[in-house]
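Input chain follows. Return C-alpha cells only.
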Amino acid sequence: MAQFLQVHPENPQPRLLKQAVAFLTSGGVVAVPTDSSYALVCHLDDKTAVEKMRRIRQVDDKHHLTLLCRDLSELSNYAKVDNRQYRLLKAATPGAYTFILEATKEVPRRVSHPQRKTIGLRVPENKTLLELLALHGEPLLATTLIPPGETEPMNDAQEIRERFEHELAAVIDAGACPLEATTVVDLTSMEGGGDPTIIRQGRGALRTLGLE
C-alpha cells in the first residue's frame, strides 16, 4: 500500500519529504509532482527500482529515462555539454523541458539509451520536487507518469494512489499540478554545428529556446 504524503505546495514539510527519501533509498518508486504533471522517481543506482519503474510504465530500455537535477552544475556531472548547449540550457532551466544529451561515465549504462549512450536531463521548477532533491542529495531517475496504453500524463495524487497503490512506495501530494508533459529537446544534434531537434512539444515554450 502506497503511503500518501500530503505536503504544503510552497512550504513542504521536511519531515514528510524525509520519509519519501527513506522510501527511495530503500528501493521504492515514488510518484512526485513536477511543473509538468506527475512523474515516477527512483534512486539512480538501484537496478531493481529502475526495472520496477519501467515495469509500471511498461517501457523498455530504449525509452529515455530522465535525470532530475537541482541545477545546471549538477547536470554537468552527468552529461557532456559544450558552450552552445550550455547557453540554451541556461535560458531554459529551471523549467518544463527535458534535454537529451550524451551521458558521462557517471550515468550507469543500464539507465542510458543502449545504442546512443544518451540520457534525458531536466532541472524542474516545482518547489516540492526541488526540496526532495536537496534532501536526497543527488539526482533522481524519473519518467513521466503516463499509464500503460494511454497518451496523457496523470496529475491527481489521489487517483494515482488508487490506481498504483500496490506498485508504489509513496505518493507525494502537493496539490494540483499541470496536466501536460515536458517539451523534449534533443541537443546531441547540435554537435558539429547543427540545430536542436524537438522530439515532443509540451508545456515548455519553444520561444524560450529561440525555436519558434
